[in-house]
């Protein structure tokens, strides 16, 4: 049974991969309209750091995010509770011998949205939506699902989100 109050937090990859690969604006406008309507209903959101990553693109996705989806990006930059969770994620990452120092440095980069999404989802008991996949062997990157798994934060991909929210191209 689907929890109608469940909040989903979108990672940058959800929007960028849809835009670049399978749900481009010209062939799947229903997907983008669904995101807007679902965000208006406060079932999905994202965070300011995801917006920052997207706006760097200066492309159609950046225009869409700025002009049609900006209301869905939660401002968390000054949220002390998120910052506490972020600190716990940084401590965990630095203690992991599996990952290279470069992976740890990238994860800790202040403008990397990944740990902030997880920190926010932890605070709000939300589901992280990402196109990244769990990889127990990876060394060169710290994937979102690996961190979610370590902190018992639920995560799903775009297609699972669409199924859970009963999206249909009709």
Quaternary state reads single chain
Which secondary-structure class do the elements indicate? alpha/beta
**Could you say what the CATH architecture is?**
3-Layer(aba) Sandwich
In CATH, the homologous superfamily goes by the name: 5'-nuclease
The helix fraction, in percent, is 40-55%
Strand content: 5-15%
* Strand/helix succession: EHHEHHEHHHEHEH
CATH topology name? Rossmann fold
Q: Please give the largest β-sheet.
A: 5 strands, parallel
Alpha-carbon Rg, integer: 16 Å
Low-confidence stretches: none
Number of strands: 5
Q: What's the shape?
A: globular
Spatial order of the strands in the main sheet? 3-2-1-4-5
Structural write-up:
This protein has 170 residues and is an alpha/beta fold. It is built from nine helices and five strands. It has a five-stranded parallel β-sheet. Helix 8 links the parallel strand 4 (127-129) and strand 5. The longest helix is centred in the middle third of the chain and has 16 residues, at 80-95. The mean pLDDT is 95.
